[in-house]
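Hi support team,

I submitted a single chain yesterday and got back a structure, but I'm not sure I'm reading the token output correctly. Could someone confirm the output below corresponds to the sequence I sent? I've pasted both exactly as they appear in my results page.

Thanks,
R.
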Amino acid sequence: MISIHIHIIGAGSIGLLFAHQLKQCGHHIHICTRTEQQSDQINLHGVSASGGSNQPVTASVLGREAFTRTDAVIIAVKQYHLAGIIPDLQRIPADVPLIFLQNGMAHVQLFPDLNHNHIFVSTVEHGVKKLTSHSFQHNGIGWWRIAKFRGNDDLVLEIINCNQSNFPIAFDQDYESLLTIKLIKNLMINPLTAIFMVKNGSLAENQYFKDMMKTLYGELSTLFPAAAEKCSFEDILDLCRRTAENESSMLSDINAGRKTEIESMTGYALKVAEEKNYLPVILPFLEKGILAIETGRETD
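Hi R., thanks for writing in. Yes, this is the structure output for that exact sequence:
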């Protein structure tokens, strides 16, 4: 395998996981952080997996990074931070492939602002929790699936060849199908776990949760019939069982007092519902439920 230079923008739980695993594959990894304090800690300590190895990587504050030597850039910030880093992305040479890791569909609408020739989207199914500025806990192994939005597939082959047993990678041909299937999974699990403050496994064990999920799945199947054919209700329950002890990313955000990605998830689905003259019931309830928690927290 050829070793390449990869920049990772964002040093949250997913950014740290990717830095650790891709460094373990033999690639040269540089993390772009939001704060100087975190970049200093990463430069000093590297990136560590709880109960696992430490991987030495370099880091710098995003606004100061020149991107003079990079073969690929992975964007691992939250969906709602993307618009704010567009000027930084525009400084990256146009022939460098960009790989986006965001949930939802909203980031695709930002791509016209980028002149890059090679843009990829992807979905991440790992369970991971950030412990410190430079360490994380890997709670559940899942797929990293990459699909081309535009450009040359060959430019990400060295990354895809990094396949490890605890970091499997696959390439999908249809980016829209990939993102829509992940959107269905996110909408089925994230808001319910965050509103009711439960881990993923509870959704598959409690009959009342399953009843709500069946209704929600019916709504999403109406909105996205093609994607629902590839992601059955039983598939969702199996995912909940496989990640039973995981805390969803939205529940983690609520517990940590962070803004969630609910609007980037529900926004696209509700837009499709409006276009189809369809009135879902559970979907808007979930959006309003999460927003109520967020705004209630702000006024406490």
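A quick pointer for reading it: The longest helix spans residues 175-196. Let us know if anything else looks off.

Best,
Support desk
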